[in-house]
Specification:
Elements lengths: L1 E2 L17 E4 L7 H7 L6 H13 L5 E3 L5 E3 L1 H9 L4 E6 L10 H7 L8 H10 L4 H13 L25 H13 L8 H8 L25 H16 L24 H10 L15 E7 L5 H8 L6 E3 L6 H14 L3 E7 L4 H16 L5 E6 L2 H7 L15 H8 L12 H14 L3 H28 L3
Parallel strand pairs: 1-2, 3-5, 6-7, 6-8, 8-9
Antiparallel strand pairs: 2-5, 3-4
Helix pairs in contact: 2-3, 11-16
Length: 471
């Protein structure tokens, strides 16, 4: 394999499609269209298996990439390598570009025929492959219009909703936002607050002034409500006009429940067989004397907390502010069931009147259930604020808050900081460090080694069963 200098492949149009190059992992990026067709990549059992395989054996096939550095095939391998902290990955280039490609959605399906796909993804592929875009989308519209006839009265809605396109004057703003979102892809879906604080590191112009008596800095992104409102408006337009993936941003305060059935007996059998004697794992907390839990203040932290807890199998709870009895009841039950001698609660909350009190309330609430817990609030702390120079919330502590006086007495000021102001990688490292500090890591490594041996044994059993079957 060879290393190719970044930028050299953009000269000319010929490329050796069979040559493999090692390139920095941050020099390539996923294609946003991939999420539209196949959905967001989830860290499920299959993903965990791929990560374990790559960690043990490396990548069997290089990632396929366009000339302008977008992934054609290998998004899951890219995700796994990024998760494992690889600095570089093997790639092969194809002589196409994403930018300006009239049928890039269809191009992706041509390079991903081997993927195990959902029914929705298969249908999307079938309609996108070997059809002109006009025919494809005409078929989609026709299918939508052919609704079932039912004996019911439907609403008659007047008017139509529209979203304005982003003007040329706001393109610099859009590009800065796109860069922030792509750099935090591993933490998708993001909250708008996370994007806001990232923009403050290198504030772009919200719009490029044509002629103005004011300096350009008047139009620069700031830590205030006006800039935040501009960001919300930009993200709305960009998502509806396809400039930012719909899966990049979420509102976790509005849960959704869906139901899935099987499309056929064959579908069910395939699902059952593919999972037969696979997915075995040991509890990574097995043999630990201290029970560990993580409690975070709000849903926007879910993805970061999940990534921190998953390798150690540490349970976590998202409070959405002050939590009710069931949260503490279930946490106390897990501690008693664990058989551990002590418990540590790692807490992530804002540096504001509610965030500091919420951490104290968590420890007090568990005490009501008879659990004397060691509380460890890992964020946001005064030390982190000073060390990182964090931008404070543009809304200081409110005097109307019942906790205002105690907060001022405790901190000596009214400034507040949200957890989203912390870089995601930094917060992830803080939670992981706190978990490991409360674990016997020698015991943990022995459990991981035993799990690898168990999986090898199960693999051998599965092969033996398969070889003995007759049809």
């Amino acid at each position: 394999m060879t290393t190719i200098p970044k930028g050299s492949r953009r000269i000319g149009h010929s490329v050796d499609r069979y040559k493999v190059h090692w390139v920095p992992i941050d020099s390539i990026q996923p294609s946003p269209e991939n999420d539209d067709i196949y959905g967001e990549i989830e860290h499920d059992a299959a993903m965990s298996g791929l990560i374990a395989s790559i960690e043990a054996k490396g990548i069997e096939e290089p990632i396929l990439v366009t000339l302008d550095d977008f992934i054609l095939s290998g998004h899951r391998r890219y995700y796994a390598c990024e998760y494992l902290g690889w600095d570089s990955v093997p790639v092969s280039y194809r002589n196409i570009r994403r930018e300006g490609h009239p049928r890039f959605h269809a191009e992706l399906t041509q390079y991903n025929p081997q993927r195990i796909k959902s029914v929705g993804a298969v249908l999307k592929e079938a309609m996108l492959r070997d059809n002109d875009p006009e025919d494809t989308y005409a078929a989609i519209e026709e299918q939508q219009e052919a609704s079932l006839h039912v004996d019911a009265e439907f609403m008659v809605v007047q008017g139509a909703k529209s979203v304005d396109a982003i003007s040329d004057r706001r393109m610099e703003f859009l590009k800065a936002v796109q860069k922030v979102i792509e750099n935090m892809r591993r933490y998708w879906p993001l909250s708008i607050r996370q994007i806001h604080y990232k923009l403050l590191n290198k504030p772009p112009l919200k719009q490029t002034p044509k002629r103005s008596k004011f300096s350009p800095d008047k139009y620069r992104y700031k830590n205030d409500q006006s800039s935040y409102d501009s960001l919300v408006d930009l993200l709305t337009s960009a998502r509806y006009h396809g400039q930012i993936s719909m899966t990049a941003i979420d509102d976790p305060t509005r849960p959704v429940k869906t139901y899935r059935g099987y499309t056929s007996v064959a579908d069910f059998i395939q699902n059952e067989i593919s999972g037969f004697l696979t997915g075995f794992h040991r509890s990574k907390q097995q043999g630990q004397e201290r029970h560990i839990e993580v409690f975070a203040e709000k849903n926007t932290l879910y993805r970061i907390v999940e990534r921190a807890c998953q390798p150690y199998y540490v349970p976590f709870s998202i409070g959405r502010g002050f939590s009710s009895i069931p949260v503490w009841r279930d946490m106390a039950r897990r501690f008693r069931t664990s058989g551990c001698k002590a418990m540590t609660l790692i807490i992530v909350s804002d540096y504001d009147p509610e965030g500091l009190e919420l951490a104290d309330d968590a420890v007090r609430s568990l005490a009501l259930h008879g659990i004397q817990v060691d509380g460890h609030r890992v964020a946001v702390t005064r030390e982190q604020i000073d060390e990182l120079g964090l931008a404070g919330d543009f809304n200081p502590a409110k005097e109307s808050s019942s906790r205002y006086t105690s907060f001022v007495d405790r901190t000596g000021g009214t400034e507040t900081w949200e957890v989203e102001a912390l870089p995601p990688d930094f917060l992830l490292a803080q939670i992981k460090a706190a978990i490991e500090a409360n674990m016997d890591m020698d015991v943990y490594e022995r459990v991981c080694q035993q799990e690898r041996e168990d999986c090898s044994q199960l693999c051998a059993i599965r092969k033996e069963i398969a070889s003995s079957m007759e049809f």
